[in-house]
Amino acid sequence: MIAQMADEITCLIVDDHEVVREGLRLSLSRASHIRVVGEAADGASAIGLVERRKPDVVIMDVRMPGMDGLEATKEILKVVPDAAILIFTAFSERSLLARGLDSGAKGYILKEAPHETLLRAIERLASGEGYVDPALMPAFLSGKDQTDMLTAREREILQLLADGMSNADVAAKLFISQETVKSHVRHILAKLEADTRTHAVAIALRESIID
To answer: How far does the chain reach from its first CA to its final CA, in angstroms?
Structure first.
């Protein structure tokens, strides 16, 4: 794919605001190597369009009525596993960034990003790479502040969960009760703003809390 970067890159725009879709379409029309092959106003419509048009890159809004962009991303990847999805949002919360990347999206960019940043993100995704908007990196790294709140025991348990251990395994290894393990896991999820153990492990690995 990288060798074909000079070729046309096809994009699908998913956003519930017509003015945003129009702005994106106009912006991308200035790049001769990028062609918009479709638009969707919600996540559900996007799934069928991606299946039919097979765009190189899907530019996906997050906050939409009905099925949001993160749920749509997961559903699209079930039917088109190699789809390259670029989360395109006005929201820069760290937890949203983590959820976006955990959903299977390959990139994450803010709506106010310069035209050149948008093009770079699209090109990177089309070539099989990932991309995070440089403006988002401080928000991404600020997660360190919260991870500092994890106790040594919580880090230890998180590492064991990452190694694939169950609550029972962790309890046996650390000579504590399963109830104590569950209590630690609840605290870990709350501190990392994670929905599940898997999500917590993904955040911890990305932010180098565990190896």
So the answer is: 31
Q: What is the mean pLDDT of each run of 10 residues along the chain (211 residues)?
A: 63 95 94 96 95 96 90 94 91 66 85 92 93 74 56 89 92 93 89 82 80 75
For residue 194, the model assigns a pLDDT of 80
What is the 8-class DSSP label of residue 195? Answer: S
List CB contacts of 81: < 8 A, sequence separation 6 or more. none
Q: Which residues contact 138 (CB under 8 A, 6 or more apart)?
A: none
3-state secondary structure 63-91: CCCCCCHHHHHHHHHHHCCCCEEEEEECC
pLDDT of residue 139: 61
Instruction: Quote the CA–CA distance of 14 and 53 in Å, as a whole number.
Output: 13
Contact 118, 27 (CB under 8 A): yes
Q: Structure pTM?
A: 0.65
Q: What is the number of alpha carbons within 13 Å of residue 28 lying toward its C-beta?
A: 28
Alpha-helical (H) ranges within the chain are: 18-29, 43-53, 69-79, 94-102, 115-126, 137-141, 143-147, 152-162, 167-174, 178-192, 197-206
Q: Quickly count: other Cβ atoms within 10 Å of residue 38's Cβ.
A: 18
In whole angstroms, what is the distance from residue 188 CA to residue 159 CA?
A: 12
Question: What is the pLDDT, as a whole number, of residue 148?
Answer: 58
In whole angstroms, what is the distance from residue 29 CA to residue 197 CA? 43
